[in-house]
Amino acid sequence: MNAIAHPAHVHTGALQIRGLNKAYQIEGRDLPVLQNIQLDVRPGEFVSIVGASGCGKSTLLRLIVGLEAEYNGDILLDGQRIAATSLERGIVFQDHRLFPWMTVSQNIALALKNHKLPQAEKDRLVAEHIALVNLAGFENAYPHQLSGGMAQRAAIARALINKPKVLLLDEPLGALDALTRVHLQRELQRIWVQQRCTVIMVTHDIEEALYLGDRVIVMDAHPGRIKHEIRVELPHPRDRASPKLQGYKEQLLEELVGH
Amino acid sequence: MLPLLKKSRGLLLPLLLVLAWEYASRQDAAGAYAFVPLSAIGTALLEMLGNGELLVNLLASLARTSSGLVLGILFGVTLGVMMALSSVANRLIGPLFHSIRQVPMLGWIPLIAMWFGNGEFSKVLIVSLAAFYPMVLNTYQGFSHVERRYREVGQVLVLTPVQQFTQVLLPAALPSIATGVLHALAFAWVTAIGSELFLSSGAGLGNLMMNAEAGSRMEVIVLSVLCIGLLGYLMTLLFTRLSRHLLRWRNLR
């Protein structure tokens, strides 16, 4: 329950997805969104998911975080079936979703609302996470005073402060300009190396998927299913310009576009 | 010099009106009766400030407006929240509320006077009803349009229903509620004066006007009208300032 007291070790945060099927009801008819998804994620692994729009990758994340409770099959976190949201799982959405009526530190502190920690300890954690995402000095800024990249950093801090076993990233850098994106990718890498929680990231950006992921899952649409996966055998932190990464990129492009 | 001019340009039109008024009052006897000279209004002001008559009536109207406003806001927000958060409550109360709301405020006065007499209770009831309608409508609007993406964040952070209400729904609905209060304030003030005109007992600016009419004291009527306008303007100004501070998190660029 209290994830803060037991910091996430690399041996927790194993995700198993078994025979997952999900359909939406459209005018009384079942529209399949995900079909027979099988996926095993090791504790502390970084998995990237790429695929055409409509392949259900965002739905998959919503299911794992617990925002959609109805599905067939099993999604197990350390053996427990996921049925609702929990502080063991954090998510960063494409839109930062900071509450506009709260300052940066209030937004981040809200995630600790239901922890029975002394206030001083909570303040310390908030300050620590603000520093982690390099937002020191902006504690009392309102979201509309931040740039897109800064707001997304705050959202990342909010998701990390509970020390989740699994961090879900739903195109977290998709709305940012190219320069900020490259910068935040490096930041994500640094933070992940430091925290080592299990991460599943959905993205449109092939380079981003390869740069950060231990594994890249390629999904196909209508209905959404896993088509292919690539293991990126490179240690972290990585060099963006590495020729090996280029090789993987061509392989992935071939998989996504060519036949 | 220039900034001062810029700041006071809102006074230009009233000043022109006052000049035209004074001009009209100096034309003939009929003009002097319909448009009492400014000097007569000034004398009346000094007289009524001196014997405390103006202050007593003014405070009576203000007290009536505030108590009616507070009641209307409390009940209005409560009902608006209920209708927005519970579809059962909405279906149960909605039709009744929307038909009752079609009856103009002044249309209630005869009924309320018959039921509760023409005392303080009836007047406050009328004022609170006037504040109640815009509060229900705007609160309902605010709470039923909270974006799903924000409610989902509350879910992801596993907030309790009470926390979800205080941390997410209420602040998200606050701009709409503030708009409601601004409308309620205007309605309450106007209705307070109206109820005093119709239920002529006790003190109040409306009563002051009625008595002045009976004694054909035009300058007192004009003075009351000026007070009503000015106070209404000041209250609106004050609340706009307050809500701008409370909602300073909004991006108004």
CATH topology of chain B: MetI-like fold
User: What is the N-to-C succession of helices and strands of chain B?
Assistant: HHHHHHHHHHHH
Greatest interface: A-B, 23 and 21 residues
**Rg of Cα set of chain A:** 18 Å
- Which spans of chain A of ≥5 residues are poorly predicted at pLDDT below 50? 1-9
In helices, the fraction of residues of chain B equals over 70%
Q: What is the strand arrangement across the widest sheet of chain A?
A: 6-7-8-3-9-10
CATH overall fold name of chain A: Rossmann fold
Question: For this structure, what is the CATH homologous superfamily of chain A?
Answer: P-loop containing nucleotide triphosphate hydrolases
Note the overall shape of chain B. globular
Strand and helix order of chain A? EEEHEEEHHHEHEHEEH
From the helix content, strand content and strand pairing of chain A, which structural class follows?
alpha/beta
For the largest beta-sheet of chain A, the strand count, sense and barrel status come to: 6 strands, mixed
Helical percentage of chain A: 25-40%
Annotated CATH architecture of chain A: 3-Layer(aba) Sandwich
Tell me the distance between the termini of chain A: 47 Å
How much is the average pLDDT of chain B? 91
Cα(first) to Cα(last) distance of chain B is: 29 Å
List the helices and strands and how they pair.
The complex is a heterodimer of chains A (259) and B (253).
Chain A: E1 15-26, E2 29-41, E3 46-51, H1 57-65, E4 72-77, E5 80-81, E6 89-92, H2 104-110, H3 119-132, H4 148-160, E7 166-170, H5 178-195, E8 198-202, H6 206-212, E9 215-220, E10 225-231, H7 243-256
Parallel strand pairs in A: 3-8, 3-9, 6-7, 7-8
Antiparallel strand pairs in A: 1-2, 1-4, 4-5, 9-10
Helix pairs in contact in A: 2-4, 3-4, 6-7
Chain B: H1 2-7, H2 12-25, H3 29-34, H4 38-50, H5 53-85, H6 87-100, H7 105-116, H8 120-144, H9 148-156, H10 161-198, H11 205-214, H12 218-246
